[in-house]
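Tokens for chain A. Residues wanted.
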């Protein structure tokens, strides 16, 4: 069994062994989260090459060799790495790093769920490795159900929270306000992509309290 959590990777060294499409997707997402990304592979995709030249992450043009995982917090072994996978996993563990092993998933310390991102809203789908295809299909459904308006709405809510905290000192009253402001009707509007009306519902609820 697994325990779901979010790992804060900002400033942490994350090493990816392999340079294919899977490595590319992992590198881009880790870099976007602020990680110090290192890709080890003799050959990489054009995007990895371009982004490494731009300084978004480091590409070391070589295969795995002992000592290259020093300082890593997370290590990703992709299908490009086969013969050295066990050795790399052992070294990573010895260095205190957590390993995601695409070659031998059962040996992984953590899984990377299928994910839908809308700004600060992140919807993760995991089948605990039972069916990556089912997780992918559900992710595609969620992408259709949760438009970009949700991410924009979160930015708006973050701005509102400060005013609400300053105006409503009682925690229970604040909680009651948010339940009324962000209700089923607000969610319906967001699902339909009507960001303006969703914001208006929150503004109306705030105005009733003199905000």
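Reply:
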């Amino acid at each position: 069994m697994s325990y779901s959590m979010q790992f804060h990777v900002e400033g942490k060294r994350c090493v990816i062994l392999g340079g294919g499409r899977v490595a590319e997707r992992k590198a881009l997402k880790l870099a976007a989260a602020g990680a110090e990304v290192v890709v080890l592979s003799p050959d990489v995709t054009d995007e990895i090459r371009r982004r490494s030249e731009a300084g978004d992450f480091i590409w070391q043009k070589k295969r795995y060799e002992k000592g290259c995982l020093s300082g890593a917090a997370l290590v990703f072994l992709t299908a490009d790495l086969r013969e050295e996978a066990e050795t790399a996993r052992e070294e990573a563990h010895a260095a205190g790093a957590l390993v995601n092993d695409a070659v031998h998933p059962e040996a992984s310390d953590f899984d990377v769920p299928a994910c839908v991102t809308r700004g600060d809203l992140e919807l993760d789908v995991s089948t605990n490795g039972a069916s990556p295809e089912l997780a992918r299909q559900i992710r595609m459904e969620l992408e259709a159900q949760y438009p970009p308006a949700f991410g924009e709405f979160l930015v708006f809510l973050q701005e509102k929270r400060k005013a609400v905290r300053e105006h409503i000192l009682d925690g229970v009253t604040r909680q009651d306000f948010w339940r009324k402001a962000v209700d089923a009707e607000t969610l319906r509007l967001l699902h339909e992509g009507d960001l303006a009306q969703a914001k208006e519902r929150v503004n109306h609820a705030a105005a009733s309290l003199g905000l």
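The two ends are 47 Å apart (CA to CA). The chain has a mean pLDDT of 92.
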